[in-house]
Amino acid sequence: MNRREFITLVGSAAAAWPLAARAQQPMPVIGFLNARSPEDTMRLVAAFHRGLGEGGFVEGQNVIIEYRWALGQYDRLAGMATELAHRPVMLIATAGGEPAALAAKAATSTIPIVFVIGGDPVKQGLATSLNRPGGNSTGVSILTTTLGPKRLGLLRELVPGAATIGALLNPSFPPYESQLRDVQEAAHALALQLVMLPADTDREIEAAFETVVQRRIPALSVAAAPFFDTRRDKLVALAARYAVPTMYQFREFVAAGGLVSYGSDSADAYRQIGLYAARILKGEKPADLPVVQPTKFEFVINLKTARALGLDIPPGVLAIADEVIE
Q1: Which helix (H) or strand (E) element contains residue 179?
Q2: Cα gap 105→100, rounded to integer Å
Q3: What is the pLDDT of residue 29?
Q4: Are 236 and 281 in contact (CB under 8 A)?
Q5: Residue-by-residue DSSP string for 130-141
Q6: Does residue 130 contact residue 294 with C-beta atoms inside 8 Å?
Q7: In the list 65, 93, 170, 275, which could disulfide-bond 51, CB 3.0-4.6 Å?
């Protein structure tokens, strides 16, 4: 016992017994499983903590958090999820999309799971329905994996003369097939030729940009995938080096120097799973907490990057931007 604890205990007889009783009770443990990396999610983890705090839980004071980071390597998630389930933890919060949520779901059917994913949790087997998830998991779908067609259309408006656009996708990402189908259908509707550029490694990302340059592809759309989120700085740097107008899923890419993004507010999603985690720790069941979906999406343009690319943003496109970074 340290000096501060001793003073607290002996300071008043009335307060001593409740404090002693609470001290003997172990703090609940949350497992935090993320397919991404700490470096690219600092702001998001802070939002998760903010949601927990709004629900009455503060790390180190009345809750412990065990962090696991896959660094974009999805094959590491199954072992991490199993480790957390055996810890044991009172709940598992998953982030970085479907890979982490599915790994947690495979590891336990009893420990509550609160997820952030980009697609449809019903199709992924994470919920029976949005309003009544059933089972042991609920959370937030930010819909980012479904927005490929919208990003493609906006990119076409930014580069109106483009007859061909490249699409960078991550084949190891569970929603890959649906992402591929969606952008192919959108390209057909826009009378665009689409060049598919799969990438699972850093070298394949570099090779994709080399292909863009060699084939003189005038613009590139980066599909939603946690692997790409962990390579944010690399993607932005390559787009600048090769002067390729590039569309991304999150504002963070544009704040880092990328040209344009379209997606939902990921920080708000992390805050929401913090709130849900707090409610579950207080006794509510995931089965009764509806899956949350965003109602607002952000279209962000970096004008400094546009000028560096020699790109004139059409006035109509500027007019519909939610944020313009000068």
Answers
A1: helix 176-189
A2: 9
A3: 97
A4: no
A5: SS---TTEEEEE
A6: no
A7: 275
DSSP 262-325: EE--HHHHHHHHHHHHHHHHTT--GGGSPPB--S--EEEEEHHHHHHTT----HHHHHH-SEEE
Domains of the chain are 3-143+265-288 (3.40.50.2300), 145-263+298-325 (3.40.50.2300)
**Burial 284-311, CB ≥16 within 10 A → b, else e:** eebeebebbebeeebbbbbeebbeebeb
Cβ atoms 89, 29 nearer than 8 A: yes
* Rounded alpha-carbon distances, angstroms, from residue 137 to 132, 273, 278: 10, 11, 14
Terminal alpha carbon distance of the chain: 55
How many CB atoms neighbour CB 206 within 10 A? Answer: 13
Could you give the count of Cα atoms lying within 13 Å of 181 in the half-sphere of its Cβ? 5
Q: Which helix (H) or strand (E) is 148 found in, with range? A: helix 148-158
The span from the CA of 91 to the CA of 112, in Å, is 5
Can you give the pLDDT at residue 25? 62
Q: How far apart are CA 51 and CA 323, in angstroms?
A: 25
What pLDDT is attached to residue 178?
A: 94
Return the pLDDT at 326.
87
26 in helix, strand or coil?
Answer: coil
Q: What is the mean pLDDT of each run of 10 residues along the chain (326 residues)?
A: 38 38 71 96 96 97 97 96 95 96 97 97 95 96 94 94 95 95 96 96 98 97 96 97 97 96 94 98 97 94 96 94 94
